[in-house]
Every structure is written in structure tokens, then in C-alpha cells.
């Protein structure tokens, strides 16, 4: 398989990266972080999520974040249900990411619904978003492993992805929520998805618990994937997925791709500045190779 010349990186730091931080990050610091990330060259970014502030207090300022930083093309917000979608629309969102795990045990913890209950409610919402001309991204959690149920049968993931595609989702962001997938599993699933859903935009979302995320990205590239979610500084993790670590660090993904001659449009030095801006407000250490090397220089 010929590798692509250009890969799109969807920066998820302000959403996935920060949602797992227990200390509230002041809204103006989030906004400065988001602005610096746009300056670094990203074309798509998850900036916040319209979820219950009782469940994820860090995202309680989603309306304010959207008011101040939501008018840029490529801005994505997450929403789990009708209330979140309605709030996102009133805040001017043009691209909404709904999310659902393959496994019911995870969904019960994350959104208080089974997979089928949630899907039944999401399908009419997706139809209505498409009728309004909104871009719909569907984030598929526990696509490989579930923190409660263990290994997920790839067929169950394919079935859920197909349901979202048939409901009209423009993009599927298929996630290794707890960072357990191996490169062979990533290659297998993304090859099947490419074959079976050829007209749906496919994105891979790797968490890096077992340090296999970069290898998984390489395996996914070989399977024909050219869109990856990642989080600056390797921040992130779902508060309802115990044991999961952060997302693959954007700076490492950018470094690896550039070394392979694949363009991303992202300036690594401006990205490092974004880390410096958010670092004082987060608890997680920054351990990415590129960050450490660039500090040594
Ligand atoms: P619930 O308690 O079952 O909600 O929570 P409910 O429908 O029973 O309503 C209870 C109250 O919540 C009501 O308010 C609703 O209005 C309010 P009250 O009448 O008591 O005053 N409510 C909301 N408020 C704000 N925003 C909303 C909303 N919906 C209802 N959208 C709910 C269900 C889905 C709301 C909750 O479970 C929730 O917010 N979960 C979000 C969890 C989350 O954000 N997880 C992280 C994102 S997913 C992720 O990180 C994975 C990903 O990165 C991919 C991967 O790595 O796997 C994408
Ligand atoms: Mg995630």
C-alpha cells in the first residue's frame, strides 16, 4: 500500500485532553490553548463537549468556549444526546461529534444508556442534523477493547459503524479507548472498515496506555487510513474508562509523519508552545519524545 503524502490530524487536546483533568482549567486558558493550536496549523479540532457538568465538570464552560472560539471552520464539539446536540446547535456548532461505545457496560458508565437504547435515540438526531446541513462525526468507543468486557468482537464494531454510516454520519472516529489494541488488530479492523464502508470518512483514535499508539498509527496508514485524532502533550482519557491513559501525543505523531515524508500542515515548534501554555494547568506529566527532545535542544 502506497502511504499518503498528507495526513489530517484532528487535535482533540482541548476536549479529550482536558476532560480527564480534575482541577478546573480556567476558560481563558483553554481559549488561549485553542488559539495557539489553530496557529500551529490544525484544520480540525475538538474544542469542547456539551455533556452534563455533573458528569464531567471540566466541560461546564462549553457554551463560553464556543462563544469565544467557535467560529473557526473545522471546530468540532461533542454531544451525547438531544440536549447536548440542541445546546451545541444554539452555540453555533457546524460540526457535531456524537459518541457511543460498542459495549453496553462502557456505555452504561459513560452515558447511562445501553448501546441499543442510545443508538435508537441518536439515529433521529443524526437525521435531523443532516437535514440542517451539519457535519456529523460519530466517535465509536471501545472498538477494540472495553475496560469492563475485555476484547470486543470486530464484527460488533463493524455492525455499530455500519449503523452510524447508514444513519448518515459523515465520519467515523474509531477509538481504542483504553489503549490496548495491537498493530495487527488495528490493521485488521481498519482494513475491514475501508472495504466495507468505502464512502465514509474514517479516522483512527488511539490512546497510548501500552505505548503501541504510534505503531497502531503506522499499521492504520498501511490499511489506508489518513486521518488521526491525537492530543497535544498526550493528555486525555475518558473519566469512565478506568485504566486508560492519554491520547497519543500530537507532537509525536507529527514528528513521526514528517520523518516519513508525510505532510500534516502542523508546525511542531508552535505546537510545543501550546504545551507550554497549558502545562501549568494540568496534572499529567508531558512525556512525549518530541517534547522532551525539543526541550533538550
Ligand atoms: P443522565 O444523568 O442519565 O441524564 O446522564 P438525564 O437524561 O437523566 O438528565 C439528568 C439531568 O442532566 C437533567 O438535568 C438534564 O437536563 C441534564 P436536571 O433536570 O436534573 O437539572 N442533561 C444534560 N446537561 C448538560 N448536557 C447534556 C445533558 N443531558 C442531560 N448533554 C448524560 C446522561 C449523557 C448527560 C451523562 O451521562 C453525560 O454527560 N455523559 C458524558 C460522559 C462524557 O463526557 N464522557 C467523555 C466523552 S466520550 C470519550 O471521551 C471517548 C472518546 O474520546 C473516544 C474514545 O477514546 O473512546 C470520544
Ligand atoms: Mg478518547
Automatic annotation (TrEMBL):
Belongs to the HMG-CoA lyase family. Gene3D superfamilies: Aldolase class I. It holds the Pfam family HMGL-like. GO terms for molecular function: hydroxymethylglutaryl-CoA lyase activity; metal ion binding. GO terms for biological process: ketone body biosynthetic process; L-leucine catabolic process. Residues 7-272 form the Pyruvate carboxyltransferase domain. Keywords: Lyase, Metal-binding. NCBIfam families: PRK05692.1. The keyword Lyase applies. This is Hydroxymethylglutaryl-CoA lyase. The keyword Lyase applies. InterPro entries: Aldolase_TIM, HMGL, PYR_CT. It comes from the Bacteria. PANTHER family: HYDROXYMETHYLGLUTARYL-COA LYASE (PTHR42738:SF7).
Amino acid at each position: 500500500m502506497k502511504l499518503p503524502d498528507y495526513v489530517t490530524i484532528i487535535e482533540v487536546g482541548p476536549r479529550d485532553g482536558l476532560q480527564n483533568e480534575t482541577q478546573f482549567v480556567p476558560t481563558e486558558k483553554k481559549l488561549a490553548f485553542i488559539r495557539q493550536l489553530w496557529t500551529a496549523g490544525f484544520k480540525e479540532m475538538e474544542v469542547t463537549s456539551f455533556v452534563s457538568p455533573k458528569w464531567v465538570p471540566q466541560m461546564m464552560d462549553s457554551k463560553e468556549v464556543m462563544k469565544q472560539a467557535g467560529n473557526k471552520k473545522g471546530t468540532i464539539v461533542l454531544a451525547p444526546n438531544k440536549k447536548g446536540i440542541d445546546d451545541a446547535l444554539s452555540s453555533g456548532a457546524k460540526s457535531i461529534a456524537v459518541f457511543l461505545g460498542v459495549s453496553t457496560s462502557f456505555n452504561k458508565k459513560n452515558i447511562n444508556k445501553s448501546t441499543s437504547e442510545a443508538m435508537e435515540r441518536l439515529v433521529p438526531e443524526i437525521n435531523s442534523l443532516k437535514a440542517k446541513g451539519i457535519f456529523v462525526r460519530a466517535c465509536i468507543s471501545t472498538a477494540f477493547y472495553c475496560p469492563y468486557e475485555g476484547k470486543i468482537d470486530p464484527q460488533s464494531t463493524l455492525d455499530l459503524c455500519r449503523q452510524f454510516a447508514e444513519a448518515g454520519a459523515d465520519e467515523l472516529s474509531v477509538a481504542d479507548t483504553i489503549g490496548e489494541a495491537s498493530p495487527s488488530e488495528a490493521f485488521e479492523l481498519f482494513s475491514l472498515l475501508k472495504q466495507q464502508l468505502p464512502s465514509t470518512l474514517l479516522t483512527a483514535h488511539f490512546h497510548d496506555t501500552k505505548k503501541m499508539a504510534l505503531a497502531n498509527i503506522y499499521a492504520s496508514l498501511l490499511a489506508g487510513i489518513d486521518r488521526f485524532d491525537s492530543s497535544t502533550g498526550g493528555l486525555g482519557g475518558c473519566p469512565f474508562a478506568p485504566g486508560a491513559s492519554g491520547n497519543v501525543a500530537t507532537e509525536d505523531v507529527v514528528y513521526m509523519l514528517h520523518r516519513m515524508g508525510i505532510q500534516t500542515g502542523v508546525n511542531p515548534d508552535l505546537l510545543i508552545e501550546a504545551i507550554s501554555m497549558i502545562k501549568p494547568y494540568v496534572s499529567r506529566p508531558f512525556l512525549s519524545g518530541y517534547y522532551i527532545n525539543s526541550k533538550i535542544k
